[in-house]
Design brief:
Radius of gyration: 14 Å
Order of helices and strands: EEEEEEEEE
Shape: elongated
Keywords: Signal
Helix content: under 10%
Distance between the termini: 27 Å
Oligomer: single chain
Structural class: mainly beta
Number of strands: 9
Strand content: 35-45%
Number of helices: 0
Bound molecules: 2-acetamido-2-deoxy-beta-D-glucopyranose
């Protein structure tokens, strides 16, 4: 099993962009303390009900931190949901799930 920590959440794009055009929707699921098991599928969901008129960071990525396992890349952030499959990882209790909005982060 892996339990997810509360660092879970969006790491939005940073830098020179005009802040108002950066869409940083809150994650709805999972939440801190959520426990996932290897091989399970889960829909990571986020709230897309209030986007700015023009989104400069339309593409998302999601990964598990602690080994930086990438789960999904290049999805449309307006989907509001992406199904991920829990990978084989060492059982532990301090994984963080990172949802990145924008393709210009520092984790490439
Ligand atoms: C994720 O959402 C899709 C679309 O609603 C659904 O078909 C799928 O069964 C869901 N997966 C899980 C693990 O709930």
């Amino acid at each position: 099993m892996l339990a997810l920590l509360c660092q879970l959440g969006a790491a939005g794009v940073l830098g020179t962009h005009d802040r108002k055009d950066v869409f940083d929707p809150p994650v709805l699921y999972p939440h801190a303390g959520t426990v996932w098991y290897k091989g399970q599928r889960h829909n990571v969901t986020w709230d897309v009900s209030d986007p700015p008129p023009y989104i400069i960071n339309p593409v998302g990525r999601i990964f598990l931190r602690k080994g930086e396992l990438i789960l999904e890349t290049n999805f449309d952030i307006m989907l509001g949901r992406i199904q991920v499959t829990v990978p084989w990882v060492l059982p532990d209790h301090d994984y963080s799930l990172i949802l990145l909005y924008g393709d210009s982060g520092n984790f490439g």
